[in-house]
Queue: 3 jobs
Job 1
Amino acid sequence: MLKTLDLNQVMVLDIETVPQYPSFQDVPPHFQELWEQKTHYQRNSEQTAEEFYEKAGIMAEFGKIICISLGIFYTEEKTSKLRIKSFAGHDENEILSQFSALLNKQPAALMFCAHNGKEFDFPYLCRRLLVNGIEIPVQLQLSGKKPWEVNHIDTMELWKFGDYKHYTSLNLLSAILNIPTPKDDINGSQVRQVYYEERNLDRIVTYCQKDVITTAQVLLKFKGMDIIPEENITIVT
C-alpha cells in the first residue's frame, strides 16, 4: 500500500486537547459525579477524582479541542514540499466548523495520517463534532466500517507490524528513524498547564505543528523516501 500511496491524497493531522474546565472545582456537580464514575477503575487507590482531573483532556466526554494542525504534501518544480495550516482558539465549535468546512472542499477519498490517530485523534474528532452538533465530514465517517475498510494511516500502527500490544511514542519513533526534531518543545502532559496557567495558545499551536511535521517525515521514511528539508516546509495562516 505505502509504495503506491499518492501523498497528494494524504492529509497529516494532529490535535491538541485540554479539560473543558480549568480545575475540578469548576466542573458542574453532575459532571463531577460522572467523572468519578468514569475514572473509578483508572485511578490508583490513593488518587482522588480531583487529582486525576488533569487527565480529562484525553477523554472526549470531558475534554475539548483547542488546536487542529494539518499537513499537505505537494510537489513544486519536481521538489517535494509540505504545507502546514492550523485551526486554533478557545471556541471549539468555531475550530471544528472551520475544519469541517475545509474537509467539505476535499475529495471523499482523502486519507488522514496521524500518530496513534486510530486510537485517539480520529475518534476524538468525531465525538467532539457530534457534541458540537456539526455533521461529521465524509472522510471521518467510520461508523460501521470494518478495520480493513478504514484507509486512514496510523504511523504507530505501521510501526507495530502486527504487534497489537506495542506502543511507541512519536518522539521515540522519530529518534530511531534519525528524523531531526526540535528539542525545545513542550510535551503532551504540559498542554493543560500551558493553556490554563500560562495562557499561551501560540506555544501549543507551534507544538502541534511540529508534531504534524514529524509525523509527515515518519510517513516518508516508511515509504523509503527522503525527508523534506526545513526550507521546503511552509506554515500558512
Job 2
Amino acid sequence: MILIGRSRWVPPRRWKLWSLPRPALSYVLGVEAVAVTITALAVASTISGDRPGVRPSEWAAFTVLAVASVLHLESARGIERRREMAANTSPYTNLKSLWVFAGLLLLPLSLVIALVVVSYSYSWIRVYGRTIAHRKVFSASTFILASAGAAAVLRGGGLLTEPRVPTSAWTLVIVVAAASTWWLLNFALVIGAILLSSPDASARGALGNLSEQLVVVAGLGLGVAVAGLQASYPWIVPVLMVTVLTLHRDLLLPQFQRAAGTDVKTGLATPSYWASAVPVELARAETLRSTVGLLMLDLDRFKEINDTYGHPAGDRALRAVGESVRAEVRQGDIVARVGGDELAVLLPGASETEVLEIAERIRERLTTLTVSVDTVSNASAVITGVPASFGAAVYPAVAGTMDQLVLAADNALLTAKRAGRNKIVSARPNPPIVAEHSESPTTDAA
C-alpha cells in the first residue's frame, strides 16, 4: 500500500535545506537553535521549577490532545498534502494550532513542546513526506517559539497555573492576547523564511491570501473551546473532535474540488483541473525526489457503443468506466476525463511497477465490466466489456516536464492501439520497441 506523501529517504546532507541562500539558511538554523534552547529551558523548569514534575491530570490531557492530533492528521492527510503543495510559496495554514493552543491552556510548556513534536513527527512520516524533514523541523520550531511567546503573555496576565481557561472577562482578554501573539509570531517567522528563501518573491505574494489565516484563527478559537471542555467536561471532547474533522473536510477540501470543477457526464475531474494538478505534483516530486506516474487510456469500443445503443447509453457506459477506474486507484490519485472517451490518471509517488499494476487492475476490470443501458428504441440492453488501451509514463524516468510526460504517455497509448488494443504499453526514453504478443493482453514497453 502506498501512503499519501511517502517518498524515498534522502540523507540529511542532500537536503535542499543546504541549497538555500546563506541569509535564509542562517535564519532557519537560528530559529531552530532558539527553539532547542526554549525546549531545554522548559524541560529544566518542569524538573526543578516551583512545581516540579507533571500531574497525572496533565498527562491525561496530553494523551487526549496527542491522540486527537494524530487522528485529525490521519483523517485529513490527503487534503493537507495537496493544500501544502498549493501553498508552496506562501504561508501554509493548518489546524494543528487547535491542539497546540489547547495544550497551552492545559499543560506546562514542556508538554506543549512534546505535543508539537508528536504532531510534526507524524506529519513527517505519514502526511507530507520524509525527504522534507527540514521543513517540518522549521515549522515545528516556529510553533515552539509562538507557544513560548503565548505562554509568556498568559503568565504576564496573571494566569500562572494550569488549567488557564478563561473564567472571566479579564482572563478572556488575556487568552485572546495570547492567541493573537501565537498567531503573529508564527506568521511572521514563516513570512521571514519565505522572503529570505525566495529573493525574487514580493512581500504581497509571500503574505498569501490573508483570508486563509482565518483557518488559524478558527483553530485557536477551537483550541480554547477544547481546553475548556477538557478541563471541565472531558467526555465531550470526542464529540467536538468529530465536529472539527467534519468542518475541516467541508471547508478545506472544496478549495480544490469546487474550484476545479467536475465533468458532468463522468463525475471525474475536468481537463482544466487535471492540467493544473500535474505541474503541482511534478513540483512536489522534484522537491521530494520522488516520482509521478501517468496513465492515458482510450476506450476501444466507445464509438461502437454510441452507434449501437445511442449517445445516452454511451454516456452511461462512460460514467461506469469512470467509477471503475476510480475504484482501482489510490487515495490521492487524480482521474480526469481529458477527451471524448479518453481518461487520464495521475499517480503521485508511483513507480513504473506500481503504475503498471494499477493499469492492469483497471484493464481487467473494464474487460469484464457490465453496464445496463437504455437503447434508442427504449429497450434495455447490457453491455459486457468496455476494454481500453493504456499508455503509461513515469516522471522523471522518461520525461522532465508536463508536456514531455503527456507526450510520452500518448505515444505509448498509440503504440498500444496499433499493437492490437486492450493492451498496456509503458513509455521508454528510447524509441518504442513493440514485441510480438500472444492472444492474451500483455504489458509492453514503448
Job 3
Amino acid sequence: MAKIVILTGAGISAESGIRTFRASDGLWEEHRIEDVATPEGFMADPGLVHRFYNARRAAAAAAAPNAAHRALAELEQDGRHEVLVVTQNVDDLHERGGSANVIHMHGTLTGALCHSCGHRWPAPAEMAPRDPCPACQKPATRPDIVWFGEMPYQMEEIWTALRAADLFVSIGTSGNVYPAAGFVADAGHAGVPTLELNLEPSAGSRYFDEARHGPATAIVPAWVREMLG
C-alpha cells in the first residue's frame, strides 16, 4: 500500500469561498497580521482577535467542501493508498469532504484553547475574552489557532510520515510559510518523489519533481483519477 502525504494550503479552500491569506500588503481580511494573528496582538486586544475569528468561524461554517476536498477523500477511501492530509488551513472542509486522516498543523476554528492551563474543547460559534475555561474557570479562552511565532502542531508526526512516504504532494500552498514550505526539501532528502498541484508556481516550485498548475477543483480530481486508474 503506497503511503501518500498531502500538504494543503489556502488554495484548496479558495474555491469554496474561504478567502486566502494575503501577505503582500501586510493585511488579512482588512486587518494587520500583527493585530490578529500573533500572541502579542491577542494580548493587546483580545476582543478584536475574538471578533475576527468569530467571523472566520462563521464563514467557514457556511462554506462547503469542493471537488478537490472530495477527491482527496475518495483517494483515502479507495483503500489502495495510505493517505495523510496535513493542512495549513483552519477550516474543517477536509473532514466535511470525507477525509478522516487529517492533521491541522495550524490548529482549527472549531477548537478553543485555554492559554492559562492548556485545556482544549470544542469552540462555540461566538467566543469572547471573558469566556471561562471549562477546566480551570479562568477567563483565558483563545482560538486554538497557531499564530505567527508559535510552533505548529504535531511536527514530529508530520516529519516521520514525510520520511516514510512513497509520494509527497503539495496542493494550494504559496511555498512562503515555514516550516511547511520546507516539507518538499525534507521529502526530497529522504528520496521521496514530490508533486506540486497549484494554481500557479509556488515559491518552491523548482524543488518539486513534477508540477501541475491550474484551479484545484480541476487538477486535484484529475490527479486522483490517475491514481485510482
